[in-house]
Design goal:
By secondary structure, the chain is an alpha+beta fold. The protein has a domain of about 90 residues: Double Stranded RNA Binding Domain. Helices cover about 40% and strands about 15% of the residues.
């Protein structure tokens, strides 16, 4: 995945490179004198309306992030690598936000055997406590 290609996520979301808005700044941290003269921190902003995806996925993404999604990365000394990291991060969070909600658990009754086991255990515990009282 390079910053000059279309971004395609596992859930089928496609973002053209022409709609990606990149911003660069000087990043902090280690790097010596080079950190003072190169802009390696990368910020990527994409409008949700510019993404090619299903309407349901778009609605879930808007609910999670609003009208645009911004990702920033400054973990490496290379602007190119930070751009790649931004794309990977964006793909990951878009897939997570676009995922449908999990299926709700169907309520079931306890099995007959589990009810009988529970009642038998209660009966045994009750007898045990009753026997303790008669000893006193």
């Amino acid at each position: 995945m390079t910053p000059d290609d279309d971004l395609r996520t596992q859930r089928g979301i496609r973002i053209a490179p022409t709609v990606m808005q990149w911003g660069f700044a000087r990043s902090g941290g280690a790097g010596g004198q080079n950190v003072n003269k190169t802009s390696t921190k990368a910020s990527l902003t994409v409008a949700v309306a510019d993404m090619e995806c299903s309407n349901a996925a778009r609605a879930r993404i808007i609910a999670a992030f609003g009208e645009s999604v911004t990702v920033t990365n400054q973990t490496t000394r290379s602007q190119w690598q930070n751009r790649r990291n931004c794309l990977e991060q964006l793909a990951k969070i878009l897939d997570k936000a676009a995922a449908p909600p999990p299926v709700k658990r169907k309520k079931t009754k306890p099995t007959r055997g589990s009810v009988e086991r529970r009642l038998e255990t209660k009966r045994r515990d009750s007898e045990k406590k009753r026997d303790r009282k008669s000893m006193e």
